[in-house]
Design brief:
The chain is of the alpha+beta class. The chain contains 15 helices and 26 strands. Keywords: Membrane, Transmembrane, Transmembrane helix.
Length: 650
């Protein structure tokens, strides 16, 4: 059912109260926007990793800076650390250093290895973090809120019209068919959350008067959902103190009907053809006729599928609907009857199930088959509902007919009361009778075992299988109904309208959770905040770490040589030193990050000749010289430049 709600998914920030205010802060986005955000987070984490490496290099450089004399390998390592281009490039440069110095320095590989490992470790950690930054979508889960164009519950138009009555039945039938498919797909193979606390008692007390239950006083089948949490199971998003629990108990048993059944002749064309015999059951008036159900025995000849008809008790205060006879009447439950006919179906083996019972031998082409023991068999059920506070199990309505319960008598807060009213209106559509109403024999799992009028053998508890299936449909309709409350009922036929009582807050329309599919992505806001705060801190700190370090060194009066070496090893300062060594340019800012020349000074690039070191010359190609090389600068300038380098390096 999640796919049908995708168009109603709310996009934006919200709180999933399953995880509390902080961890539950969630951002839901469409798939395309979510994909862009995931990509941005990965890039941001990568950028933060590079900035963290810069910070690490600063501390590494400063810890290695020394007044003592070091070999060239050390100074080259310091230059690489100072001017690092990221952990991957830095690791490669350290490896290259080790290779070139393999025969010219002591243990060059070992001296570079620790730096390679450190760079590789930083690269790996933030590489993995970048990949797993998308995990914040898993932390948020696949739940979202829904917001529909309409909100409320559906009922027949309150004008008593035929259109309203048929519209109500049509909508109920459509929902039952949809719920049956959902229940069959989701409840049969795995244990659903609505079934987690469900208990079954195959030896429950007969729910009707003594002697009415066919199998005795203690052979009824009772199904109890236990407390269903409005938030955890139904998805009504709320804080723990604002939740309620809903409980449903259904008890069924095959019952005797022979004492209230009469075989009568058809009296008009509405009952059948002249001469047809009609089997009528008088379990109470329906308000339309004195009998409760009638069956034309003509179906025993030419109908090769099951018939199923149900009635449910009406409002006893108004006398409307079916009013059960005293032996079936309950003031604490809704009563329903299910009239089953196997018609002309013949089984390939005897059926000992009390509701499907078939032991009448029939010979067909020298093959023995078994026909039903009686034309109609009756099953009786009662539905009982209960609402409780999720925080106080003693605050409960009586287990009975919730439609007549006084919710105001419970000590519920306003949010709990609104949720309880919402559930109360929802269960009008989810009773066991609504699982079969209008579906006929298609509501039976046994129908799946019938082909061309021949029925496969049925287990002795087939009737329990049937009512368990109806219970699953009821639970599926419960889920369907609470979602439709927020999204707005779909496929409304003529005569059916949506209502939202004025005494129920509009907030109940804005707090329904559903599981979304791949069309939307939910993010943990806490996860994103952590990524942005930590990553942003790394980025900002990398911009000012050297300034902070320099200020602290100036303030403490210690580590001046470290500050000067940090400046001297900067690539622009190294370039300045090279040009000053060549005697070109009037440079200033030897102790700044960016050295400057006098305005308007022009000179070419440094060029090295005979790079193997046998005839080294450093010349200056000016704009006017096209291939010529200047000689080394005079000794006084060279000595001045060298002395200046030494001063900065202190």
């Amino acid at each position: 059912m999640a796919s049908s709600t995708e168009s109603y998914i709310y996009t934006g920030p919200w709180v999933n109260w399953s995880h509390g205010l902080i961890r539950g802060a969630t951002l839901t986005l469409p798939r395309d926007s979510g994909g862009l955000l995931i990509a941005f987070l990965a890039l941001f984490v990568g950028l933060a990793g590079s900035c963290f490496w810069y910070i690490l290099c600063y501390f590494l450089h400063q810890s290695r800076a020394s007044r003592e004399k070091k070999d060239a390998l050390h100074h080259q390592q310091q230059a690489i650390i100072r001017n690092n281009a990221g952990p991957a490039v830095t690791a490669w440069e350290f490896l290259r250093l080790g290779w070139y110095w393999r025969s010219a320095a002591q243990n060059p590989f070992w001296r570079s290895l620790s730096l390679v490992v450190l760079a590789s470790l930083n690269l790996s950690v933030f590489g993995v973090a970048s990949i797993y930054s998308s995990e914040i979508t898993k932390a948020a889960g696949n739940e979202s809120l829904i917001r529909g164009s309409t909100c409320g519950f559906w009922l027949a138009r309150p004008d008593g019209s035929v259109e309203g009555e048929f519209g109500y039945r049509s909508k109920s039938l459509g929902d039952a068919i949809s719920a049956a498919s959902y229940a069959r797909a989701c409840y049969n193979n795995t244990r659903h959350i609505l079934e987690c606390n469900q208990t079954v008692n195959a030896n429950a007390s007969c729910p009707f008067a003594p002697g009415r239950c066919m199998m005795g006083a203690n052979a009824a089948y009772e199904m109890d959902t236990g407390p269903i949490d409005s938030h955890l199971a139904l998805g009504i998003n709320a804080r723990e103190k604002d939740r309620i629990t809903y409980r449903k108990r259904v008890t069924c048993a095959p019952i005797f009907g022979r004492d209230v059944g009469r075989l009568e002749n058809a009296t008009d064309q509405n009952n059948g053809f002249p001469g047809d015999q009609i089997l009528r059951y008088y379990f109470g008036s329906t308000g339309v006729a004195n009998h409760t159900y009638q069956y034309n025995t003509r179906s025993l000849v030419g109908r090769w599928d099951y018939s199923l008809y149900n009635v449910e008790s009406g409002d006893p205060s108004t006398g409307q609907g079916w009013q059960p006879i005293p032996q079936l009447s309950r003031t604490d439950a809704q009563v329903s009857l299910y009239f089953l006919s196997a018609n002309a179906i013949e089984y390939t083996a005897p059926v000992d199930d009390p509701w499907f019972s078939a032991h009448e031998e029939v010979l067909f082409d020298n093959i023995t088959l078994w026909a039903p023991d009686s034309a109609v068999r009756v099953l009786g059920c009662i539905d009982q509902d209960q609402v409780c506070s999720a925080t106080d199990s003693k605050q409960c309505t009586p287990l009975g007919m919730l439609a007549y319960a006084d919710l105001n008598a419970l000590n519920l807060n306003s949010a709990q009361l609104e949720t309880a009213r919402r559930v109360l209106l929802t269960i009008l559509h989810i009773g066991i009778p609504k699982s079969t109403d209008g579906r006929g024999g298609l509501a039976l799992r046994a129908q799946e075992k019938v082909s061309l009028g021949f029925g496969q053998p049925l287990p002795n508890n087939q009737w329990q299988i049937e009512v368990s299936h109806w219970m699953g449909i009821s639970m599926a309709k419960l889920q369907q109904s609470v979602v439709e409350w927020a999204s707005g009922p779909t496929n409304l036929p003529a005569g059916v309208e949506v209502f939202l009582p004025s005494d129920i807050s509009i907030a109940t329309c804005l707090n329904q959770k559903v599981r979304h599919s791949g069309d939307h992505v939910s993010f943990s806001i806490v996860g994103m905040v952590i990524i942005f705060v930590v990553g942003g801190a790394f980025i900002l700190l990398s911009l000012v770490i050297d300034k902070i370090g320099g200020f602290l060194q100036w303030l403490s009066g210690r580590g001046r040589h470290r500050r000067l070496q940090w400046i001297a090893n900067e690539k622009l300062q190294l370039l300045r030193l090279a040009y000053e060594g060549a005697g070109k340019g009037a440079w200033s800012g030897a102790k700044d990050i960016v050295p400057l020349t006098e305005p308007g000074q022009l000179f070419g690039t440094l060029e090295g000749e005979d790079m193997d070191g046998r005839n080294q010359r450093v010349g200056l190609m000016t704009a006017s010289q096209q291939g010529g090389h200047e000689e080394y600068p005079p000794d006084p300038k060279w000595k001045n430049a060298v002395s200046h380098v030494a001063e900065v390096s202190l």
